[in-house]
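Archive transcription. Copying these from loose printouts into the bound notebook so they stop getting lost. Printout 1 of 2:
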Amino acid sequence: MTTRIGVLDTRTGALLRTLAAGYGSPLLVEDPRTGRLVAPSAEGRRVAVVDPRTGTVVRVIRLGARVLTALAPDPLGDLVYLGGGGLCDPRGQRCRGWVQALDTRTGALGPLHVLDDPSRPDAGRLAVDGGAGHLVLARGPDAGTAIEVVDAATGRRVGGGVVSFMTVGPRPVAIDAAAGRAVVALYRSAIPFHGPPGTGPLPSLAALAIVDTRAGRLVRTIPLGPGRPALALDARGGRVDVATYGPVRYDRVPEPNGRVVQRTAGAGALYVLDARDGTMVRTVSTGLATTAVAVDGVRGRVYVASAGPVTLPWGLVGQGMVTVVDARTGAILRRVRVDPHADRSGPRHARAAAARGDRGHVRCAGDDDLARVCTCP
């Protein structure tokens, strides 16, 4: 499969150009100071720096045997931090994670920092507190998720670290640099229960960890509702918005092998919390199979994407929805219906939501890479 980067007009949804074939990894990030994109290859052993205005690949950095698993920009500098694994002993029995800074202007790589804990063979998920000069790593899930704060200049751990026996969700770490806090979304997956139809296992649960990025200590952990979490930070309001997928049930279907399928069993939820101490501000009910959340800090809006009714592993879906929420009051302003693709090929057609604060658009993307722009005033 050939991956590539697409550039869209957020006003119309038109595809302006495609570029950097072979570098369309979901780990794509933007350096906010230069506007350049940092895009790893699918196998994670090369990184391209791309100018999205001209569509040109400025340079390609080869990582050798190392494998990239994490990217995070420093909002205060011209650096993007790379993290990954692949640093193994000659017999391949002990592997360590690593982090390294990349200057997107010159392509220069900073010192390579090898991480301490060999029980977690890569850097996991990565975020940057530029004010403190610290990196926050959420590493797991093989030995439980380890949340670590690391000095960006030396690679040494700050504080004692925190271990949680929950795995991290997609894009799970957000930084509030002004408050010196990292917000980490955690998730414990349910294990299918082979019982009578309509019964299920211990439900999947989401939780939120608040970490002091300056001292490297856990402030508190907040349990949330059922389902995999998605996370967005409202830095202007000092709030964190967490959307959870919602409850599911497991049914045995009459097939020769008695397959167990997973079905949506209730609406997801949007949890709004204080980013500094984790105090719950409000809870808002959203749609079925809530998969993504984005914040428009300029307009004071929160956009929550829901895929609609889902049956796995077949991926049968109904109509999805984007719920527009007033960030200040929690009132639901609008629900925008998002039709599935004609072949109903994927349960996550409304999974990716990204708000543009200056234009009030939400990007809705499906498993078939069909991108649409929904105007949500």
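Printout 2 of 2:
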Amino acid sequence: MSGPIPSSLPRLAAVGVLFGVLACDPPAPAPRVWPAGTVLALDGEPILESEIDAAADVFAQLEPDLAPPQLSRLGLTNVVLPRIAGIHLAGPAREEAHQRALDLARLLAAGGTLGGPLLDATLVDREGRARDVGFEAWTWASTAELGQWSGPIETVGAYELVRLDGRTPASSARDVGYKLKVCVVPYVDANDPRGAIERQLDRSKLEIVDPKWDDIVPEYWKHRLRGGSRP
């Protein structure tokens, strides 16, 4: 006849069950569903291929001999990534700047002038070719009429209102000269916008969503955008 079950056995069984539960791998998180057209993400912000294509199209007019992957790299690293970094850095200040830019645009559309206070905006003159006046301003001015003001145009770290005051024809788009009046409404540090955005990029992390972009993103940027912690 069997003797009584030792009292330690239930405890051992319970420990075994607990160990088995702890030893199980946790369920894998569900993969993130990205918006259609997403090819990259910066700090979780989707980057659509259409955004990069729009920036690349500008460079294609200025550098018509470059291959499409090179144009995509220029658009990504010169326009798209800095712009998103500025948006992340600004937080609510971006929407506030947008509202100020809209107020100024309504003032100009009603025939007002920019004399007096500019609602935290800066009025500057720009003259030269595309790289001198800014890619976004150049894109708008290339088809604008003389004396015409634009609506708010988002650039890296700011909104701009642009007036075309002069255009000097040339045989190629990149050599056309422009004379512009630009009202700048910043939403990052107006004293050092480029420096602030560069520091934000140094803290950012890039994720490659579409594998084909692994060959397009420059190795330097893959290395840089690893989520560093530099101040």
